[in-house]
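Retro notes - structure team

What went well: the batch runner handled both jobs without manual restarts.
What didn't: labels got mixed up in the shared folder, which is why I'm recording both outputs here explicitly, each with its sequence directly above its tokens.

Job 1
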Amino acid sequence: MRKPPIQAWKALWQWIRYRRVPLSVTFVLTNRCNQTCSYCDIRTDRSMEMSTDAWIAALQEFHSLGLVRASFSGGEVLLRADLSRILSEARSLGMTTSINTNGSLLADRWPEIAPWLDMLVLSLDGPREVHDARCGRRGSFDRVLEAIRLARRSGVPVATIFVADRDNLATLPFVMEMGAREGFFVYVQPRHASCFSVDQGLGDLDSDFLQHLGHMLERARRLGLPIGASRSFVATLLDPEQVPSCRACAAGNFFATVLPDGELIPCHLTRREHPRDLVAQGGVEKAWRSLAHPWTGRGCLIAPYQELNRMFHLDPEAIRSALMRLAGRRR
């Protein structure tokens, strides 16, 4: 049974004591992946992986610090045979849960993970031919569609992440219209040059590209299409000079990431610049207390991080957007 009031009190106590609370944590259970997406270099990092018991212990320790939302990802998170056990532990602790997956392995695992899942997040980068080419695997699009429909029949909310670059931007309207038909929200984020280094930026994606993307999202909102982006995130795309720097980000204060080997970092993009403590060695509380805020860095446009950062800065548009997504409503 969930206990939100208890978690709220724990979070408030941590805030009073330390002015820092890990309200939302992404647990990267593995960097292994069964696809070779053209824009992703996570699979190139062959970190060791913590055991089931170590992940469960970490969840329990984070719970004591006030953790409310636990997101599980990879690599391909469904390559972990123990995913359902880890998810069930998170839910038993009262956490809201989600997984990020490419969907290729979901159908066979759905009965065991569905009872513990609050939201399903899938990668979807365009229509069949575009998505399959970017993933390096034929049939990927069809498996994503199967996963969407499976989750929706089960009553589990679905969101997709569209990684935008010059090769697939023209197909974004197709994905948003598909979201309207199939009942899922579409997050859009510009491709970053590396998943592990904020300093590498967006590569060849310039201000004109970002502004064009912002205008596409504005038009989609006017048409009532189910975009996940808040108005404030779209406004940043339209004026890229306003991208918050790492110094202004809530990463490391209110949300963080745990890598497969247990390394606690503010976010993926700070991995190479700011190595951190291993939660499996000194414990979660020690790692959290010693986690240094990323004071340098130009900032990013990773959609989930941007939305979390805005919510924790009490941006009303980001909060409104998140609440409406949870309610399954469009703006």
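Job 2
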Amino acid sequence: MRWLTVVLALACLGADQASALQVDWSAHAGCGDVDEYWRAVGARAPQIARAGPFAVARRVRIDIRAVGARSVGTIVVHGQPARTIAADTCTEVIDGLALVTVLIVDPSALTVSAASPAAASATPPSAPAAVPPPVTAPSPPSSSVTPAVAPTTSPHPIVDSGPAPTSAGGATSGLRVGGGLGVGLMSTGVHPVFRPSIMLELARERVGSLRLSGALSEPMTTGDGSRTTASFRWTTARLDGCAFGFGDDVVVRPCLGFELGTVRANGAGVESARAETRSWMAAHLLARAELRLGSAFLLDLEAGAAAPIVRDEFVIEPDHRLYRPPAVLPSARLSLSVFFP
């Protein structure tokens, strides 16, 4: 239970800055980075804050891909439909995505920021004809029109609101590396056993993830109804591959896994009892629900079943059967991972 306490305590980190924005960024090779996007947002609305790595904030997903000779960017702000912008250069797309962000999150900021340049550029009253027309940002569009405006230097900057393009002409970024701790519960056919674990994970946004974990179970004790008993302990490593998920705040992913390790049996209550170590192999079918806690933490709960490939039978000679793993072993695990920048 100490493992569970640690996991739940760490999960409470990063609960501040809920009003800030957390950006999941993916862009093709040669395109700008998320810092360029934030500079464009800050120039229009300085009050829109960039959430820290441990903050829980409103999520924004941005994906910029190369389609032919153009850059196409898609933005999804939590609770809003996707907006798509296309332009000749990635810089124009980033600037347009920043404008869309401000229009969705705080459209009044454009009115305030537009007034200051007009006042600053005003000439003395004696020469009213020389006053240039004020530069104003477009007013927020109605709900029936996509609020996506790109710089006018591109002849056709706007595509529409819709799904992201399915083809890309360049490689996407977004590969993240993380590590974490988990506490699992595995049914053995006798009684469940806890299995603390450590994990290393590679994940790519909107693609999937690979997770390598190592676990050591608590002993499971069984007997034949007399004083003869045996304890069993699993030491395993497991590789899980999870596909593209579904959902926004909570993402659900289907996963397949393969487990390899040993199960060690120790007999007791009989003369000349000995320990025996056997190989352990099992295939896993899982469903994983993930909750992002800021940009650094990921809390997930997975549930599924394992099918042992090796099902050795443990007996006390000559014919006292003590244990054989069942064909299907239900399992669950709660994990907390930290992803590195």
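One thing worth noting from job 2: Residues 1-18, 115-131, 139-156, 162-173 have pLDDT under 50 and may be disordered.
We'll revisit the folder naming next retro.
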